[in-house]
Amino acid sequence: MSYKRKVLRVNLTTGSVATEPLNEAWTEKYYGGRGLGVKYLYEELKEGVAPLSKENKLILATGPLTGTIVPCSGKLAIITKSPATGGILDCSIGGRFAAQLKFAGYDMLIIEGQAKAPAYLVIDNEKVEIRDASQLWGKGIFETESQLHGEHGVATSVLSIGPAGENLVSFACIGSEYYRQAGRGGVGSVMGSKKLKAIVCSGSTGVAVPDMSRLLELTKKLIKEDVLTDTNLWAYTEGTSTIVDMSNSAGILPTRNYQDGVFEGAAKINADSIQKLQPKKKACFSCALGCGNYSDIKGNAVEGPEYETLALAGSNCGVDDLGAIIKFNADCDDLGLDTISTGNVLGFAMEMTEKGIKDFGVQFGDIETYSKIPRLVAQLKGVGEELSQGVKKLAKKYGTTDFAMEVKGLELPGYDPRGSWGMGLAYATANRGGCHMSAWPIAEEAFGDVDPFTIEGKAQMVINAQNYNAIKFSLILCDFWALSMETMSEIMSCVFGRDVPVAELEKAGERIWTLLRLFNVREGFRVADDYIPGRFLKEPLKSGTPAGKLFPPEKFNSMLREYYQIRGWDDSGVPTPEKLKELDM
Amino acid sequence: MAVAWVRTHGSLSSHPVKEGIGRGDGVPVMFQGKRLKVREVFSRLHIPEELVSFVAINGVKSAKDAWVIDGDKVTIFALVAGG
């Protein structure tokens, strides 16, 4: 087995640092990453805990493949209760931190309590210290990371927050290696609420597997025949920016706060425009794909911009100036802001201004004001203070929920579901809110041959994808490796030293998804929380292939009912006792 | 002789490049008559259809059995995952 069989638990209130055995019975059902992290949080957190209170916990989980040579296994899962939604939140972040944590001897790090003064954590194998971070507090992620590398060595890995996390912005993120983020749901503000500025980690142990020769042979075969293939190499050649033209051609590119799905300036912010900057390539630990496009334009260095940033901070704000988007991206990375939510909130503020409901002083395409917004938000200054609350709270305050593009309090990413009805169901039922990482039926519908404007078969399509990703993100394999369940089974059998059949993984995927749902149900989430914004149900798209299309409410409701039935949940969206028994829960 | 200009993206972007045709406006695909099936474009460029996500003609998503006419700009997108 590749586990370290050890959990590191740090309480910032008491200053205690302790290790304990990993619950190995749970690893048999939940494996690691998302699954195991959520299991720990579900069991340890009481119902109703305020996300930014000292009672909330921040769990950093590795997986059974972390630290091995299995390709695309370098990510870290971070699990907590979300301040944006009040429900479960799991994020992942690339880079090397996960491997370092495993090499330091831990499968998981659980952070509890709240420090009295700004602190940072240093993990150097068995030596774990809580140190004073008062000199770092207020600094951006870039400077924080540079200083910590200077003090602890460049070989260490650092997770840190910027001013946005310190100031408890509802969409603050955690950064690592300057340009990588655990972006969504306010995970950075949970860290900020604990007054934890950073975590520095280095480890020097190895990861044992039952048969290294077999794993080496398997890895060689996988890299050649399964990873570096035409199915995955899009991530290397152009990366996610290629999706700008795809979404625009399919008429689902969020434009001016989702008022349209075709952006007239798309050609200025697409993959071709980024390739002209001749980006350098970067990869996570143990990754053969190297999706990171590192660019530097006029002193603004970024990895990306990724599609989601180009969509939400570009077309969604009516901005077609790639330089301005890159600066916006770099500022968000440094300040510790999620670019998806920041762009979404800004698009909402622009529409509020356009409609004369509330003048936020920023118009669609107004690059000068747009460029100032991330700093105002992160520092809670001017309009930034109000925008820092996120779209859901703003919409409630002004009575404009129909064009608040969020689900469960999490701002939507870059796909308009009026041109891909399955994506609407995926948004509505994603446990962490408006999220594209649980299921992405876009590939089959808007970008494929499946009719996007029918509900037939879509509930099952979304469920299959959610269960698949639940297990994939519990093994912590990268989203960009389109591997089969059979390949996952082959890898796990090799790493576990026992047969791990596909059926076991499929059942675990469903179990893990259900556990996330149970967390939210315990917090009071029900069918009314599985919604999509009113705009999608009432206003037809204006341009492109899906022009004239909306998502008819009766179709959406019918699809949701079918989803519950297939899932074995009751009409209110609660998993039935029979389903829980079937899943050994 | 009619001509359509074809661009490929994602992992498919290497196909025309490998043949030394370059990028810019794309690859010219010449054809006799008034129109050509999109699938014939795949065939001319040796692009396996199973690797194609979808095709846009003049920036609008189109079916793989749609017709291409003189002067059309055809964009062929490779399969992608995630987002």
Describe what this molecule looks like in 3D:
The complex is a heterodimer of chains A (585) and B (83). Chain A is α+β, with helices and mostly antiparallel strands. Chain A folds into three domains: 6-202, 4-Layer Sandwich (Aldehyde Ferredoxin Oxidoreductase,  A, domain 1); 241-399, Aldehyde Ferredoxin Oxidoreductase Protein, subunit A, domain 2 (Orthogonal Bundle), CATH 1.10.569.10; 403-585, Aldehyde Ferredoxin Oxidoreductase Protein, subunit A, domain 3. Chain A has 23 helices and 17 strands. Chain A has helices spanning 24-30, 33-44, 97-103, 141-152, 163-166, 187-193, 212-227, 234-237, 243-250, 271-275, 307-312, 322-335, 339-354, 367-378, 383-387, 391-398, 421-429, 458-475, 485-496, 502-522, 534-538, 553-567, 577-582; strands at residues 6-11, 16-21, 58-61, 76-81, 88-93, 108-112, 119-124, 127-132, 157-160, 174-176, 180-182, 196-202, 280-282, 292-297, 300-303, 406-407, 410-411. In chain A, a hairpin with a 6-residue loop joins strand 4 and strand 5. Chain A starts with 5 loop residues before the first strand and ends with a helix. The model of chain A has no long low-confidence stretch (mean pLDDT 96). Chain B has a single domain (2-78), classed as Beta-grasp domain (Ubiquitin-like (UB roll), Roll), CATH 3.10.20.30. Helices cover 14% and strands 40% of the residues of chain B. Chain B is built from two helices and seven strands, in the order E-H-E-E-H-E-E-E-E. Chain B has helices spanning 14-18, 38-44; strands at residues 2-8, 27-31, 35-37, 52-57, 60-62, 67-69, 73-78. In chain B, the strands form two sheets. Chain B has a five-stranded mixed β-sheet. A two-stranded antiparallel ribbon of chain B has the order 3-6. The longest helix of chain B has 7 residues, at 38-44. The radius of gyration of chain B is 12 Å and the shape is globular. Chains A and B meet through helix 8 and helix 9 of A and strand 4 and strand 7 of B.
